[in-house]
Design goal:
371 residues, alpha/beta, 8-stranded parallel β-barrel, two-stranded antiparallel ribbon, 14% strand
């Protein structure tokens, strides 16, 4: 029996398998509105064979978007657009769909990555950015405004409002984005948080605002739906977030009632050297958090590419869920192909079954051509 294809309870939600499609920015929205690109992108991921699909980092306010082409969920029009996508998917797939709610902080107000390498947005598209401290992400980037109490109150309310919109739109799950150098990471890391008030200095202080956001989101999101969080296990820079700090943050979120902890790393320090070409390069962070909170659902991500690799991580107890990103962009049928590789039925939609294993003489040749 394959653990990868064993159901897993995530709070009130039971996933049919342990495969999760991680949030992946598409930089293709207009004024925060998802476009036809998003409809086809999310729709085909809903047919990928994964147990859960989580939509890209979505700004809880206009200033919280990474780029001017990011999705948002702060107004009625955006809510309606997402609701239509979910309604349409429900006509052909019952795969749970989640959304990652995010605020980019000092890393906001940029171009999409294929325009000027994702650098700061031009003046006619730029906006004021905010962070824990008035410290720019890079020397040639905009300097953010350090959030005061009123600003922090505004951000908390924005997360709450977006969560209510996500619920009404029909999402099954919300993931809080506290990773990759965006706003909540900027508070958590001593390298980006230079505050001398109750929100800076000690780990307890640096966690104070992220945990306030997390609690507000926990209170606003229905207990009948699942709630998760993604956060960093490391800045990959000396003096940054430590594994022990990640363990403490994860334990606090688990105690708060978060249904899964999704471990990733990096993105906070522009000069960090990240071994992103190494298989399982972030798994040690998931393993460490799992050891500190053994009852929690812990999700691993990072250069996990093959079905056996994913299966082995589960068997070894390093994680409970496996998140994939670029591997699924490369092969939108990754979940179905993984089932075959692990000796299980492919599970394709009936409309596609004739192209699957055991139904088409050319299957083995076609798969081998891309092996």
């Amino acid at each position: 029996m394959s653990l990868l294809f064993t159901p897993r309870a995530v709070g009130p939600l039971t996933l049919k398998n342990r495969i999760v499609v991680a949030p992946m920015c598409q930089y293709s929205a207009v004024d925060g509105l998802p476009q036809p690109w998003h409809a086809q992108h999310i729709g085909r991921l809903a047919l990928s064979g994964a147990g859960l699909v989580v939509i890209e980092a979505t700004g809880v306010e206009a200033a919280g978007r990474i780029s001017w082409a990011d999705t948002g969920l702060w107004n009625d029009e955006q809510e309606a657009a997402f609701a239509k996508i979910i309604r349409d998917i429900r006509t052909y797939s019952d795969t749970p769909i989640g959304i990652q709610l995010a605020h980019a902080g000092r890393k906001a107000s940029t171009n999409p990555p294929w325009i000027d390498r994702g650098g700061p947005a031009p003046a006619d598209k730029a906006w004021e950015t905010f962070s824990a401290s008035a410290q720019a992400f890079k020397p040639d980037w905009h300097t953010p405004t350090a959030l005061d109490q009123a600003g922090m109150d505004r951000v908390v309310e924005a997360f709450v409002d977006s969560a209510k919109r996500a619920d009404r739109a029909g999402f099954d799950l919300v993931e809080l984005h506290a990773a990759h150098g965006y706003l909540l990471t900027q508070f958590l890391s001593p390298l980006s948080n230079e505050r001398t008030d109750e929100f800076g200095g000690s780990l307890e202080n640096r966690m104070r605002f992220p945990l306030r956001v997390a609690q507000a989101l926990r209170d606003a999101w229905p207990r009948t739906k699942a709630l998760g969080v993604r956060f960093n296990g490391s800045d990959w820079t000396e003096g940054g977030i430590t594994v022990e700090e990640a363990q403490a943050f994860g334990a606090a979120l688990h105690a708060m009632g978060y249904d899964y902890l999704h471990l990733t790393s990096g993105g906070n320090i522009a000069t960090a050297r990240i071994p992103g070409d190494q298989p399982n390069y972030q798994v040690a962070f998931a393993e460490a958090v799992k050891a500190a909170a053994p009852e929690a659902n812990v999700m691993a991500v990072g250069m996990i590419v093959t079905p056996q690799q994913a299966e082995d991580l589960l068997v070894e107890g390093k994680a409970d869920l496996i998140a994939l990103a670029r591997a699924v962009l490369d092969d939108p049928n990754w979940g179905h192909h993984a089932a075959v590789a692990l000796g299980l039925p492919e599970g394709l939609p009936v409309q596609y079954e004739r192209a699957g294993a055991g139904h088409w003489p050319g299957y083995a040749t076609a798969r081998a051509a891309f092996a």
